[in-house]
Amino acid sequence: MSRRFVARRSPIHGNGVFATAPIKKGEEIVEYKGTLMTHQDADVMYGDGGETGHTFLFTLNDEYLIDANRKGNTARWINHSCDPNCQALVLEAEGDDRRKDRVFIEAIRNIKPGEELTYDYGIILDVPHTARLKKVWKCLCGSPKCIGTMLKPKHGR
Fold first, then answer.
1. Residue 11: HSE in the Cβ half-sphere, 13 Å Cα cutoff
2. What is the model's pLDDT at position 92?
3. What pLDDT, on a 0 to 100 scale, did the predictor assign at position 38?
């Protein structure tokens, strides 16, 4: 099967992932891969306040996350958008071993060749969303629906 996407420089931010062939709504595009680690290990390695505004960490579940900085694949270059054409789906594995859960990126509408693949990162930080943090996590998607930040409200927290 030929690759349906390629990573290259993005007008949104840094690198991005672009369709090289039509992708149909509902199609699974790529698995988000990297090194599995606990949230505590990630806090020790990277800090816990979201200070950089750049991360390849994907929350898998309450116990684990995927660190695409280490052994990551092309999925780590998919940029955030407030009006995305993809979504990230966490598939829970059978049984109680949460280490076996996986993340897939799926098209939520038809995507044409040349279009950049994007999904809503849905970043929730357990710290106050100060003006400085909102600037650090500024959204650059350029969509008319852009809310200006990748941070999501901490509903009920």
1. 7
2. 94
3. 94
Residue 134 parent element (H or E): helix 131-136
Q: How confident is the model at residue 1 (pLDDT cuts 50, 70, 90)?
A: very low
Q: d(Cα 47, Cα 68) in Å, to the nearest integer?
A: 16
Q: Which amino acid is at 64?
A: Y
For 15-39, write each residue's pLDDT tens digit.
Answer: 999 999 999 999 999 999 999 999 8
The architecture of the domain spanning 5-136 is: Beta Complex (2.170)
- And the tokens for 26? 């509902």
Count of CB atoms within 10 A of residue 1's CB?
Answer: 3
What 3 state SS string does 33-51 have?
CCEEEEHHHHHHHHCCCCC
For the four alpha carbons of 67, 73, 75 and 80, in that order, the dihedral sign comes to positive
- For residue 93, give both structure tokens: 């594995």
Alpha-carbon distance of 43 to 67, in angstroms, equals 12
Q: How far apart are CA 144 and CA 20, in angstroms?
A: 25
Burial bucket for residue 8 (CB in 10 Å: 0-12, 13-18, 19+): exposed
